[in-house]
Amino acid sequence: MNFETIFDFILKKPIDYPGKHQNQQNRTNPDLKPLNLMDQFKIIFKALKVYIYERMLEGNSLNLHNFGIFGFEICQDTSRPTIHSNLCEIAKDFQNNISDRLHKHRMRPFFAPDKNLKNALVRYPGKEEIQDSNSQYSVFQQGNNVKFCNASIIAQACHFDKELVQNSLNAFNQALIDVVIKKFDVLLDFDFVVIKIKNRDIKYSFNLDFQNILNTKIFDFENLQLQLLNFGKLHNNNKKIKA
Prior knowledge:
By secondary structure, the chain is an alpha+beta fold.
């Protein structure tokens, strides 16, 4: 199954998946005509794909309730900066060395399924996705800088009511769990990442161009430095709490 077949699955079961998405809705812009039920779903999820993509390029992980987290972690490939007691100083090393690429690293995007989706799966990326949060050189974005999906932003982009968007997202996420339990295979193409579920085993693959964008020098400087500074503050706060 894919996005469209899951939309169809939902629309054929109005009792199981109730909400505004089961009826044709007026647009918030009076100049735009109402869409049929399938097209309502299509435009909402087209906007969702763009929304996730843009949030990640801003350096934010995004949490979709009942679906999962689109995030990234910073992996160092070669030399590390001098060890500091204050993680904020790592960002200073990074700023000093970035022009010479002395501080080499890469940003690895990932998808981590929500706990409710995990329960429907036999296998899923788990501990291997999570680096030690105490490491000075690991920023695991599932727990840091996570933004929750804002239905209002998607609604504005589509000229739809916020409730319609939220109902559509909720219905899709629940339907996905249901079809996985029923042992349907699923392929969800988000354009920049493809998520596959086969035999209740989930795998994902991020587009190489998207990964390259995450690892450009400009993105490194403007986003990675902020990630390291935020992580340093979080680490220091945790030390104070423990003390």
